[in-house]
Specification:
The complex is a heterodimer.
Chain A lengths: L1 H17 L5 H25 L20 E12 L5 E10 L1 H20 L7 H20 L3 H22 L4 H27 L14 H4 L16 H18 L8 H8 L2 H26 L1 H28 L3 H22 L2 H32 L10 H4 L1 H14 L6 H15 L4 H7 L1 H18 L10 E4 L5 E4 L11 H19 L2 H18 L1 H7 L1
Antiparallel strand pairs in A: 1-2, 3-4
Chain B lengths: L2 H23 L8 H26 L5 E14 L3 E12 H24 L6 H20 L3 H19 L6 H32 L4 H9 L7 H18 L8 H4 L5 H10 L1 H11 L6 H22 L5 H21 L3 H28 L12 H4 L1 H15 L5 H19 L7 H25 L40 H12 L17 H5 L21 H13 L14 H11 L22 H12 L1 H24 L5 H7 L1 H8 L4 H73 L6 H24 L1
Antiparallel strand pairs in B: 1-2
The chains are: A mainly alpha, B mainly alpha.
Chain lengths: 545, 774
């Protein structure tokens, strides 16, 4: 099941390889079908998922796979290293509450991504092959339970992303692509070192061999006491935690490693922005929750305050930077930075409310930001500019677009009744309840005000009032005596067209529904989060020592 | 589930249904679906009236309470906490029932009124949809049984307010006003949110009832200061929503919305939600928090009243009057006059809605003229409007026989009692500001009535180039009626008149109390008694609603003896022996459970000494308050008569002679300018600085690293090319050259080889023998 959901897109990519590049529609349809099939599989997995099983790690003496579900575990690469033992890499997939939410999100965003790729005209074949490769890599990251396998998927993501930005991007695409590529590579080099160090520090409780299994690594009992990353080697464990954290933080992206994001977004085509913000950023925080924190819980406990402060900087600094932007897409990019800060803050709370809020925020940010970037794409397609001051009064002329924008904007500013509110609320609840992060939480609430400020201000400048004198569109008086909007070389529908509605309406419905009744998502993740909190708690660690 | 709960769920959801239907289908429905909005709200009101009847009239029990909740979020078995669920629920008590009836009635009347007022508007259907979602959110606030739910609905009314203020969004002033309203409210909301977080972090629940029970049991784990902070922070929500100083600036601008909206949201219901919320959390407010609330309320009441006296726009006068009256309610809560404050909330809702709808009728009839300087003489043309407007004005000014008199008097009596009980001094500022503002209220309302309804029409006086009219202009209406004569002004149609009459009727004393001088004898104040604090001077002892008579009486005795309450500053001579000792001992710690029985309490008994002292003193202050406030009202009205009717004092000349003061009032104490220069500009500057920092410093470093890496790469490339490769090439060259030289030896002739071999052998022997010799 999981293998299928991971490799379906690559299969589609292989099919596309056989299709002549002139058959653009077939190429698109194949990709769409693969994405929809992925979605169906995600729903099946969701239906078959038992939310009472926590996952995260294996109980002592229990099955080595713990309570993960949909497990697929096969030996993959076995190398005899002579005196150093052997290298056992497994093909090990499985889901728990942390990953199943992300699997569903990835499947959803992939469908949206394919739909929003429809207008791409340049080298369609190559585009969709890379797109499908990216899709496989993302999904693989979320279900891999072998660190090596995770790393393979993690690196695999870089390549298609690099080309998708570098070839199909805006004017400054090469700079953005290489910045993204190098930044992420920089993080993953260290990850590789830590991974090898971990391999030689952890043994599988059943076989006694060294293992890359994240399930085994998440239990401190499986560490060899005097190994390089064993419990005695405090300094190396701190170093490993820090470099891993930086590796993941770059993806989040966390201040001060965030500047690749606005560039990447501004240059990336709309669907890639959607994927980037919707899924890729979550890999950073997912990696923290799956790998970084549970493998080094005592270092995590010691770093709570620092992580919280970094989260708060993301929230407030990102909001202020967003306030200053003239380019709508750049504003949305900075809003992503701000909103991912809530995730960090929630994780730093290290309690159930905060971590549930963080994981839920990852899901909600995925859906909401996907909407935001799609909506930016809508106006950019028509007006060929994203300068906020080049509009004005759009609400009068594109009422449906304005209505959807209003929903998305208010979702982003955390309006109750929309999903983003609940996750942000519980991030604050958690962060405030933890005495370590309490004062950081108090400062971070400023993000609520400034988040509203930049969103409402942009809403006003683009949609309310009247057309600005130097606007990127004209007004024509139609046959009915009313003024109509006119874009210079836009032949399509002026307000949202059917394809755009098909992408936006389901997202809006999800955002509203999960804002009113969050349990369909929260129900899946609470038991895992409770387990994670337990694994990370200082009580468990002192019991071990 | 209790049948009342079922009904209340219907009441809550029906307006939402109206919203959903109208937002999607209004263009496909006849009359844009306005009958759906009016019909649904009529039904909602009927249901609410039934709830009101069942709870307030039939049950007639001050302690009436039914509640229902369901699990909304289940966190499972949380480490360190145990099973944790977040519940949502509904609670119906007397206050809820009264608020339900009030909100749905006014909402229904405003719906009805809007069918006339908004007729012909481009977005007519959308208007009713927005009214629907507003009503839903407002009812949510009223029905919620927990802090999380009220916060949700709190922000949702903020959203509906945002949408309705900006209903004419093509106008920049409207778009500015809606943004300002939302942001000012958000500032208040973050305070409220932090307050909620403080309480949640201690008890892992949002439920009022559970929080109060935990507080009463003394389980608050943080210091007393945090509890006070929680109270003040929660109150910040009210400061935003109820437009209290310093966040009052949004409300007058909110008048950019259509006038029915001003009546419903920005006068009667939403802005009063702040007061309602403080009432809901009243029992957890510490004495210090209450002091802050009282001073904020008093200052707001005073400040807004001073601004109202100089405004020209009919709606702005009413807006500042609303701010001022909300200040009274907040003041009332702060001084512990809980029932009185809520009483004023309800009476104010009716007469202020009446005033706004009346002003809407005037604006409608005057073709969107809002400036009172160009009105006048309307009493003849609009007799119904005149009569109802006047009645509501009398209630607002607080003249006897009106509802406003009773409620305002009860608040002011509470303020005097509070000042007496707290030991005077600075606390007398609160009743003083209250009474002074009462005079100002009478004055500015007298001025308004006179300018609008009496004298002759001044429409023709309006300068032709004055384009400040039509703040409330419908997009569908033209702007070409500057000089409409007053005789062209007609009374409004029945659908706008009926609401005025009903609301004016509800401003009469008899609706609330048989005694026109004492609201406390009426049903309202009996049914909404002041609750017992859970954080009084006796944490751990005081039990809400379950005070044992012995403890209560003992406390009452103590309280009577110690007017200083928790402060224990002064003691009456006649009971000094018992009380001073007790007061000094029990100060802020535990209530005495010993003590003898005491005589009858004033209606309600408090075990908390401070509350009891204030209640007692307020009761004592009832008669003085009546006298003083009547004098103040008469003074205010007389002043208005002197200035505007008899023209003994010329208002313009007076304004000139005290020009700085006049400008100070006219420019609203310059708060907007101050905020613009500080917070708004400051935020923008910070955002510019951060953005600059981001592109130039952080990205500069990133790009710098790239450049350095590139340089290093070039350098290593150079090294590679010249040094490494140079070495390689040199080796090749060397080998090549030496090879070239050596190859010359490679002649292929055996003789040469033999010679060389011989030379080598000889050389070896020479070497060998030299070694041997040495």
């Amino acid at each position: 099941m999981l293998s299928l959901i991971v490799f379906l897109p690559i299969l589609a990519g292989l099919v596309i390889l056989a299709v002549p590049s002139s058959q653009k529609q077939i190429i698109r349809m194949v990709s769409l079908l693969a994405a929809i099939a992925q979605g169906v599989l995600a729903v099946l997995i969701w239906q078959g998922y038992d939310a009472s099983l926590p996952g995260i790690t294996a109980a002592a003496g229990g099955a080595p796979e713990g309570s993960f579900q949909f497990i697929e575990r096969l030996p993959w690469i076995n190398l005899d290293l002579g005196t150093m033992g052997s290298l056992n890499i497994e093909y090990f997939l499985g889901v728990d509450g942390l990953s199943i939410t992300m699997v569903i999100l990835t499947a959803l965003i992939s469908i949206i991504g394919v739909l929003s790729s429809w207008p791409i005209q340049k080298q369609v074949k190559g585009y969709f092959i890379l797109f499908n490769l990216l899709s496989t890599a993302m999904m693989g990251c979320f279900v891999a339970l072998d660190f090596f396998l995770f790393y393979v998927f993690w690196e695999l993501m870089l390549l298609p992303m690099y080309f998708l930005i570098g070839i199909w991007g805006g004017p400054n695409r090469e700079y953005a692509a290489i910045k993204f590529f190098l930044y992420t590579l920089f993080g993953s080099v260290f990850m590789l070192l830590v991974m090898i160090g971990l391999y030689f520090s952890v043994t599988d409780p059943v076989t006694g061999n060294h293992t890359f299994s994240l399930v085994a690594m998440a239990s401190q009992e499986n560490y060899i006491k005097d190994a390089i990353l064993g419990p005695d080697n405090v300094m190396w464990r701190y170093a490993a935690f820090i470099v891993l954290f930086i590796g993941f933080a770059i993806k989040v992206p966390m201040f001060p490693f965030h500047t690749w994001l606005p560039d990447a977004h501004v240059e990336a085509p709309t669907p890639i922005s959607v994927i980037l913000a919707g899924v890729l950023l979550k890999l950073g925080t997912y990696g923290m929750m799956r790998i970084n924190f549970p493998l080094f819980p005592e270092v995590f406990q010691a770093s709570l305050y620092v992580i919280a402060v970094l989260g708060a900087i993301n929230i407030i600094y990102g909001a202020f930077c967003a306030l200053a932007q003239q380019d709508l897409k750049k504003m949305v990019a900075y809003s992503s930075i701000s909103h991912m800060g809530y995730v960090l803050l929630g994780l730093a709370a290290a309690n159930t409310e905060g971590m549930v809020g963080a994981l839920y925020q990852m899901f909600n940010h995925g859906t909401i930001t996907a909407m935001l970037f799609l909506l930016v794409g809508v106006i950019y397609d028509r007006a060929h500019t994203r300068q906020i001051d080049k509009f004005g009064g759009l609400a009068s002329y594109m009422p449906v677009y304005a209505a959807v924008v209003t929903i998305a904007w208010f979702a982003s500013l955390g309006l109750p009744g929309l999903s983003g509110f609940i996750s942000e609320a519980f991030v604050f609840v958690g962060a405030f309840s933890s005495e370590t992060t309490r004062n950081v939480a108090i400062v971070s609430v400023l993000g609520i005000v400034f988040g509203a400020a930049y969103l409402l201000w942009s809403l006003q400048r683009m949609f309310l009032g009247k057309r600005k004198p130097d606007a990127a569109y004209d007004l024509e008086v139609g046959a009915d005596g009313h003024e109509h909007i006119h874009f210079h070389d836009w032949k399509g529908k002026l307000d949202l067209d059917a394809r755009e509605l098909v992408m936006l309406v389901p997202l809006a419905v999800i955002v509203i529904f999960l804002g009113i009744y969050p349990m369909p998502v929260l129900g899946m993740l609470t038991s895992s989060i409770n387990k994670l909190v337990e694994v990370l708690s200082p009580v468990v660690m002192t019991a071990l020592n | 589930m209790h049948s009342l709960i079922q009904l209340s769920i219907a009441v809550l959801l029906l307006p939402l249904l109206s919203f959903v239907i109208l937002i999607f289908f209004n263009k496909r429905l006849p009359r844009r679906g306005d009958f759906i909005g009016v019909g649904i709200l009529g039904t909602t009101f009927a249901l609410s009236l039934y709830i009101f009847w069942s709870v307030v009239v039939q049950a007639y029990d001050p302690a009436f309470r039914v509640a229902w909740d369901f699990t909304w979020i289940d966190f499972g078995n949380v480490p360190g906490v145990g099973p944790l669920v977040i519940k949502m629920g509904i609670v119906i008590d007397n206050l809820t029932a009264i608020m339900l009836a009030m909100v749905t009635l006014i909402s229904f009347l405003v719906h009805l009124y809007s069918t006339g007022y908004m007729a012909g508007d481009k977005h007519y259907g959308r208007f009713f949809a927005y009214l629907g979602i507003f009503t839903f959110s407002m009812l949510g606030i009223v029905l919620s049984d927990n802090l999380f739910a009220i916060y949700i609905f709190w922000e949702l009314v903020g959203l509906s307010s945002y949408l309705l203020i900006g209903f004419y969004f093509e106008k920049d002033s409207a778009a500015d006003a809606q943004k300002k309203a939302f942001l000012a409210n958000r500032v208040g909301d973050i305070g409220m949110w932090l307050g909620i977080l403080i309480l949640y972090s201690q008890f892992h629940t949002f439920s009022y009832q559970e929080i109060f029970a935990n507080l009463a049991a003394g389980k608050f784990g943080m210091s007393e200061a945090w509890l006070t902070a929680a109270g003040i922070l929660l109150f910040m929500g009210c400061v935003g929503k109820s437009a209290q100083f310093p966040l009052h600036v949004w409300l007058p601008d909110a008048m950019e919305g259509p006038t029915p909206v001003s009546a419903l949201i920005h006068a009667a219901t939403m802005v009063a939600a702040g007061v309602y919320f403080v009432a809901r959390i009243f029992v957890l407010l510490t004495a210090d928090a209450l002091h802050v609330i009282a001073f904020i309320g008093a200052f707001t009441a005073f400040m807004a009243a001073t601004i109202a006296i100089t405004q020209h726009d009919i709606k702005r006068v009413l807006a500042y009057s609303t701010v001022s009256q909300l200040g009274y309610m907040v003041l009332g809560l702060g001084v512990g006059a809980y029932s009185a404050a809520l009483f004023h909330l309800v009476t104010h809702a009716f007469f202020k809605a009446c005033l706004f709808l009346g002003s809407g009728a005037i604006i409608h009839a005057m073709h969107h003229e809002q400036d009172m300087r160009w009105m006048g003489g309307l009493r003849k043309n609009m007799p119904w409007t005149f009569a109802t407007f006047t009645l509501a004005t009398l209630a607002l000014a607080g003249l006897p026989l009106t509802s406003g008199f009773m409620s305002k008097d009860a608040i002011l009596a509470g303020a005097i009692g509070f000042a007496n009980a707290e030991g005077g001094g600075i606390y007398y500022l609160i009743p003083f500001l209250g009474f002074f503002s009462a005079m100002l209220t009478a004055f500015y309302m007298g001025r308004q009535i006179w300018l609008v309804f009496f004298g002759e029409s001044r429409t023709h006086l309006k300068p032709a180039d004055d384009h400040h009219h039509g703040h409330d202009a419908h997009a569908a209406h033209g702007h070409d009626d500057h000089h409409e004569e007053a005789h062209g002004v007609h009374e409004v149609a029945w659908n706008m008149r009926t609401p005025l009459v009903i609301l004016a009727a509800l401003s009469i004393f008899a609706v609330y109390s048989p005694d026109p001088l004492d609201g406390a004898k009426g049903w309202f104040m009996s049914m909404v008694p002041t609750p017992e604090t859970v954080v009084g001077s006796a944490p751990g002892e005081a039990q809400p609603h379950e005070t044992s008579s012995a403890a209560g009486n003992a406390a009452h005795l103590l309280a009577e003896a110690v007017p200083g309450g928790t402060h224990g500053a002064e003691t009456d001579a006649h009971s000094e022996g018992v009380a001073s000792e007790a007061a000094s001992e029990e100060h802020g710690s535990a209530a005495p459970v010993h003590g003898t029985t005491h005589g009858e309490a004033h209606g309600h008994e408090f075990s908390d000494p401070r509350q009891a002292a204030i209640a007692h003193a307020a009761h004592e202050a009832h008669n003085p308050a009546i006298v003083i406030s009547s004098i103040m009202v008469v003074l205010g009205i007389s002043l208005a008569l002197i200035v505007y009717v008899f023209r003994i004092i010329d208002p313009d000349k007076t304004a000139q002679s005290i020009r700085p003061l006049y400008l100070f009032s006219f420019n609203k104490w310059y708060w907007d300018e101050i905020y613009q220069a500080t917070f708004i500009r400051g935020s923008l500057v910070i955002s510019k600085v951060f953005s600059w920092f981001d592109t130039n410093i952080i990205d500069g470093i990133v790009n710098g690293v790239a450049v350095v890496t590139k340089k290093v790469a070039f350098a290593s490339g150079g090294f590679d090319k010249y040094v490494v490769d140079g070495t390689v090439n040199f080796t090749a060259f060397f080998v090549n050259t030496t090879g070239g030289i050596l190859k010359k030896l490679q002649t292929g002739k055996v003789q040469t080889y033999v010679v060389l071999l011989m030379l080598a052998v000889i050389g070896y022997f020479v070497y060998y023998f030299t070694q041997l010799i040495s």
